[in-house]
Amino acid sequence: MPGKDLMKEKNSPGKKRRGISIRYNTLSVVSLAVIVVLSLVFTVAFYKKAPGEPVKRALGWGTMRVDGDRNGFFVEFSHENHMKLPKEGCTYCHHLPVPLDSVTPCYLCHSHMDGTSSIFDHERHAAYYKKNGRYCDECHTGIRAREYAKKCIACHSGYDKGLDYYLSARSYTAAMHDRCIPCHRAQDAGLGEKIYSDCGFCHSKLPVNRME
After folding, report:
1. C-beta of residue 183 within 8 angstroms of C-beta of residue 197
2. CATH code assigned at 92
3. What does the pLDDT look like over 59-83, one tens digit per residue?
4. Looking at the 3D structure of the chain, how many domains does it have?
């Protein structure tokens, strides 16, 4: 009978295998697409969080040219004029020089434009005090953990803050804005108009080829 033949054809092993094969192929394609999409998402997320190149040093001295984030434009900074300001003098910007230095450039510690940077070199300290296998005791009193370390001022004069202050530095952007903007706003308040605190006063988009 034709009906029986048709039922046999529908229920044949070959048909079942082809149906299962199609389902598996579809599932494989969907799975692969999901993996690719997730990979792209994680890549983008990691790329945004990953620190970029270190901040580039400024050029010049009297009038410094800063292209710290390497975006093709520089900011002109009158180092000479800022040195004349009466507030805290050099220490207003150079607030934490490295040991045996007096005017460490900002970019050496604030070395990433948008992320924090580690500034404590543990290996260098360990190598410096290495002797008879007990060099850790020079800084750590008994228990070798941060909480039991000596205060930095024990060896470095002027380093009188807590240990955490000397472990990392905030981003270059945060450091510069925190130091510059309050003073510029105070100047504008005295003038009665917004000049120094306007973003364009510093970020004037001067092309980097003028630095050469």
Report:
1. no
2. 3.90.10.10
3. 888 888 888 888 888 888 898 888 8
4. 2
